[in-house]
Write a structure and sequence with these properties.
13% strand, alpha/beta, 617 residues, Alkaline Phosphatase, subunit A, 14 strands, globular
Length: 617
């Protein structure tokens, strides 16, 4: 066969596709003309060289033509999905998401739920454009195979050298493959940054969390305690109305005058399992990996363990049909829950006609939970954690008859509005069931979001992106139904977070115990600092000392400082004009503590072996 052409049509076609995706993302994020600095131009140039020679290199490899077709068409389809993810989320895809969720997808019952999430990100137009790119690649590869020797035999080495330059000399890659590669390298190496080396506490003392907690607000019989984790509640929607004048959460709003309502309450991270971990164990969630997946064997002495030793019947119940999604069953039963169950009878089986979204509607979930509790609970007070599901993303499966705000929703925000509203409606069922139960007069109920969820703030609709208020702030209401109330009806404006929940339960139950809790009771003095972790997108650390909010983007070591009182939308970074060096240094040391806590968790030093043998009160 005679070869004449020295231009790779496949590589040119791939670059056209890259340019198309790059332009769409750039326009959406308004990165022109700011993008064209020296560093950005270097990144862009290296990306073009890398992508061109990568494709050209595969074409000239001595492998069967069918294998070349398969490799290159798979590559362009993968690139298309990564590109449209970037366009929809305004951020490159982070390898950490794949690392943390890859095994979960393969677990029984989890695949279709994960596919639901994927469908919520990509629309028909995205698949159509990717298919067109695949077809174009097919014809270009066929043309190359008929008339192509390639630029030279060194195509792949040039691609490798270009990618290496991007990984080690470019802070922010500008194409999907190199960005994914850089995030994988960042996750794999976990190199200690100069920030960590300076601010992370060192030595055994830095791991010391063991202390004796003495209750200040316990009285009489120990109360029944209910944690209601309402899925994905963004605090901005509480006591707010849709443009058509309808309240998003009218029932929850009606509870606020009866409750201790925390206006500035924060989830410690951005996913359900992480919220449960922080709330039940009073520990800042992990920086790398999922707590329920990666740290199930750690010695922690979480709240359910302490309560069970003090006579409580501990139960964790969920509306999702997969009892072990995110390894929840294994973790909860290993850390103090006597029983962990799902109230779903199988959404593809007996409950097929009632399920929608990710599982059993919250109202049926509450009914079944109380019926089950009456059959299984024999003696002692109850500690129950309930995980709802009706307001889980992608928010677009609310039945037409229960779309109380938008009958024909046209956007993700409108779908979310309906999902939040119906979960609020279902919450009535919990309190109706509680009122009819034997627990009604001696119970304390905590109603909270398991985490927040962005709804267009900062042009973001993905909770694994950024670390703004909408990523973390969620509501908390504490309702005390005892005659001798210890939780006053009030509004609390100080900042608190999920790590303060477990200590509060011990405080109200009158239980003195040795703990490794990071938080203190919600009824004690407000914490000086509140910490949050965004584990994706390059890892963000956030520390709040209201009204100031400090943020560190770990991958680039870029810092941000916002005044939440004068700038609640977080539009102005104060760092360039900031003069209070002492406060800034304190924020940095607080981030260092988060790193130290992660080390203690990963090295199983939260609860030392010698602390296992202690005197129970």
């Amino acid at each position: 066969m005679q070869y004449k052409n020295k231009v790779s049509y496949s590589a040119i076609w791939f670059l056209v596709f890259y340019a198309f995706l790059f332009f769409k993302a750039a326009v959406k994020t308004k990165m022109f003309p700011a993008f064209f600095g020296a560093g950005e131009l270097l990144s862009f140039s290296l990306s073009v060289i890398f992508l061109y020679f990568l494709i050209a290199g595969f074409v000239v490899l001595r492998i069967r033509p069918l294998s070349k077709y398969a490799v290159l068409i798979t590559l362009v389809s993968m690139y298309g999905l990564l590109g449209f993810y970037h366009y929809k989320s305004t951020q490159f895809f982070d390898f950490a998401i794949l690392a943390d969720h890859g095994l979960s997808v393969l677990r029984k019952g989890s695949f279709f739920e994960s596919w639901t999430v994927v469908k919520s990100i990509f629309g028909p137009a995205d698949y159509l454009r990717t298919a067109i790119a695949m077809i174009g690649m097919y014809f270009c590869v066929r043309r190359d195979l008929q008339s192509y020797t390639g630029p030279i035999r060194f195509a792949l080495p040039v691609a490798v050298i270009s990618l290496s330059g991007i990984l080690f000399f470019v802070a922010s890659p500008s194409d999907e493959l190199s960005s994914l590669s850089k995030s994988a390298l960042y996750r794999a190496l976990r190199l200690e940054t100069t920030f960590q080396s300076r601010y992370k506490p060192r030595g055994p003392a830095s791991f010391s969390l063991i202390r004796k907690m003495i209750p200040q607000h316990g009285s009489g019989d120990r109360p029944n305690v209910f944690f209601i984790f309402v899925e994905s509640v963004n605090a901005r929607f509480i006591e707010a109305k849709a443009p058509n004048g309808k309240e998003y959460t009218p029932f929850l709003n009606s509870l606020i005058p009866q409750a201790m309502y925390f206006e500035r309450f924060y989830a410690q991270s951005i996913q359900t399992g992480r919220g449960h971990f922080a709330s039940l164990c009073s520990l800042t969630p992990s920086i790398y990996g999922k707590e329920f997946e990666n740290f199930v064997d750690r010695r922690l002495n979480c709240l359910p363990e302490i309560l069970q030793k003090n006579g409580y019947f501990t139960i964790f119940s969920k509306a999702n049909e997969d009892i072990n999604f995110d390894n929840t069953y294994s973790f909860t039963t290993s850390h103090g829950f006597k029983e962990m169950n799902t109230m779903s009878k199988g959404c593809t089986g007996e409950d097929k006609d009632v399920c929608w979204g990710w599982g059993l509607p919250d109202n049926i979930f509450y009914q079944r939970f109380f019926k089950h509790l009456s059959q299984t609970h024999k003696q002692g007070p109850v500690f129950a954690s309930l995980a709802t599901i009706s307001s889980h993303m992608p928010f677009n499966e609310v039945p037409p008859a229960e779309r109380y705000i938008y009958k024909n929703p046209q956007s993700r925000l409108e779908h979310y509005s309906n999902a939040l509203r119906v979960s609020d409606e279902y919450l009535k069922t919990f309190f109706a069931e509680l009122k009819q139960s034997p627990y009604s007069k001696n119970s304390i109920v905590f109603v909270m979001g398991d985490h927040s969820f962005p709804m267009g703030e900062h042009s973001n609709f993905q909770n694994e992106i950024f670390a703004f208020e909408e990523n973390f702030r969620t509501p908390l209401l504490v309702l005390d139904f005892r005659e001798n109330k210890k939780v006053p009806a009030s509004r609390v404006t100080s900042a608190y977070s999920q790590i303060h929940l477990a200590p509060t339960v011990l405080d109200l139950a009158g239980i003195s115990a040795k703990t490794a809790f990071q938080g203190d009771s919600l009824l004690s003095a407000p914490p000086e600092y509140v910490h949050m972790v965004q584990p994706y997108g390059g890892v963000y650390f956030t520390v709040i000392k209201y009204p100031y909010k400090y943020m560190l983007y770990d991958r680039s070591q870029k810092e941000y400082l916002y005044d939440l009182q004068s700038d609640p939308q977080e539009m102005t970074n104060l760092l360039d004009s900031w003069t209070d060096v002492n406060l800034l240094e304190k924020f940095r040391h607080e981030v260092g503590k988060v790193w130290s806590n992660y080390d203690a968790l990963s090295q199983n030093k939260i609860w030392p072996k010698e602390a296992l043998f202690f005197d129970d009160p």
